[in-house]
Write a structure and sequence with these properties.
The protein is an alpha/beta fold and 452 residues long. The chain is built from 12 helices and 14 strands. A hairpin with a 6-residue loop joins strand 2 and strand 3.
Length: 452
């Protein structure tokens, strides 16, 4: 093959530069350029883990309980004291209760987006309102924070800039991919690297980071040399400039496939059994543990979407209390508290922003199915680490948790604050393929009160 390099046709060169020839199945996200425009000079956080409680967690049964409310409104659960005097949370979050000194709760969240999951998820993750009842991800969407950071902040060649797991959450079972997770108008090369295998499975491995059958590391190195050699032959050809750009992306793919550092991040079986147990031996607990490992390996943003589809977990229209007590809250308490403990013990919490978000809250009034319905007029989010004040509560709701009783805050405000802590000016412009400017967050303001 090398003997023919001087007479290679355009088609052969492009084929040689393709991932298929290299035996690589990495997606196009590896085109992330790490460009830097108006990046703030003093970030408080280097990385971010988003735990997205997809479907709409009930603030009234978790963070903002109203034990004196009427029977048709108050939770079946009791509030318990936390490590912050005067702050209470649900009795089924006992481990998190002991860690509230690390966190800020914003109890006066609201948004004007309609109560459909798709629109609310999009607002929660991007700070923008698409203004429609539903629908899946679209190419013109605003980008997710992970996509923005992969574009604006450089990352090492042997780490993944933005990872999402363990599901491509659908808008209803069998529906389209929810909006808010992708690169949108800045390009699919900034989409997340998807980890869709179950980290709790005994045979867990990531297919997209696996060498093709019969391709050894030595053979992979030979193919990398071939690509470099071919690239050197064609750099003067104006018709093949695309190859020059692709060549860099292929090298990133080679680096990831041959890097022990990158591979080790996914080797979750290296974790002590006791630690794995503490996160919870389920797909969500192990996904959160994997998120910590990825952050340690250099990934900027990891988003854990806690549902295969929008109606599957936190969307508790029926049997709200049974689902929360038996499954959702114990799993969340184990995973989130273990993450905060781990990050703190390893000295990583100070520089790692943890954001526990959701689409919206749930209705104050309990419905006839012992459930609560969608409620965007008031809910709670939790933030920790990465420059966030510890042991702090911002805002309050009225006596039944229906509306904010003090200043309200929007998803755009939270997203703007997250960007600011990560060193990105949330009001700067990004450009789409037609070179039209779009503010990263158009309407949100940084919430200075929650920054340490």
């Amino acid at each position: 093959m090398i003997a023919r390099r001087h007479s290679a046709t355009r088609r052969e060169v492009l084929r040689a530069g393709s991932l298929g020839l290299a035996g690589i199945s990495l997606p196009i996200f590896l085109k992330a350029r790490g460009e830097s425009e108006n990046v703030l000079s003093t970030p408080r956080a280097d990385s971010c883990i988003v735990i997205f409680l997809n479907g709409g967690p009930s603030h009234l049964d978790m963070w903002d309980m109203k034990p004196e409310a009427p029977t048709e409104i108050r939770s079946e659960f009791d509030p318990i004291s936390t490590s912050v005097p005067g702050v209470e949370v649900c009795e089924h979050l006992p481990r998190l209760a002991k860690l509230m000194h690390h966190t800020t709760l914003i109890r006066s969240m609201r948004h004007s987006v309609n109560n459909s999951h798709a629109a609310a998820v999009y607002a929660a993750l991007t700070g923008h309102d698409r203004g429609e009842q539903g629908g899946g991800a679209m190419p013109g969407d605003n980008p997710a924070p992970g996509a923005v950071l992969s574009k604006l902040l450089p990352h090492s060649g042997n780490s993944l800039p933005y990872v999402a797991l363990p599901y491509k959450t659908q808008e209803g079972k069998g529906g389209p991919l929810q909006p808010g997770f992708l690169g949108g108008f800045i390009g699919s090369n900034h989409d997340p690297f998807w980890v869709l295998e179950d980290p709790n499975a005994a045979d867990f491995h990531v297919h997209n980071l696996t060498l093709a059958p019969g391709v050894s590391s030595r053979r992979m190195a030979s193919r990398r040399d071939l690509l470099s050699d071919l690239g050197a032959q064609i750099t003067g050809n104006q018709n093949l400039r695309v190859f020059e750009a692709m060549d860099g992306f292929q090298h990133q793919a080679f680096d990831l496939l041959t890097s022990q550092h990158a591979q080790r991040a996914f080797q979750i079986d290296r974790e002590p059994a006791k630690r794995r147990d503490s996160y919870g031996r389920n797909i969500y607990g192990q996904s959160v543990l994997l998120a910590r490992r990825l952050i340690e390996a250099g990934t900027r943003v990891v988003t854990v979407s806690w549902a295969p589809d929008a109606n599957a977990t936190w969307d508790t229209h029926g049997n709200n209390f049974t689902m929360l007590k038996q499954t959702l809250l114990p799993q969340f308490d184990a995973a989130c508290s273990s993450l905060l403990e781990d990050l703190a013990d390893r000295g990583l919490l100070e520089r790692t922003l943890v954001a526990v978000l959701g689409d919206f809250g749930r209705t104050p009034r309990i419905n006839k199915n012992a459930g609560r319905d969608h409620w965007n007029s008031c809910y709670t989010v939790m933030l920790a680490g990465g420059g966030i004040k510890g042991g702090f509560v911002l805002g309050a709701s009225d006596r039944i948790g229906a509306v904010p009783d003090s200043n309200s805050f929007s998803p755009a405000d939270v997203i703007a604050t997250m960007y600011s802590l990560l060193g990105i000016d949330p009001h700067q412009s990004l450009y789409d393929s037609l070179q039209r400017p779009h503010q990263i967050v158009a309407s949100g303001q940084v919430i200075r009160d929650i920054i340490a």
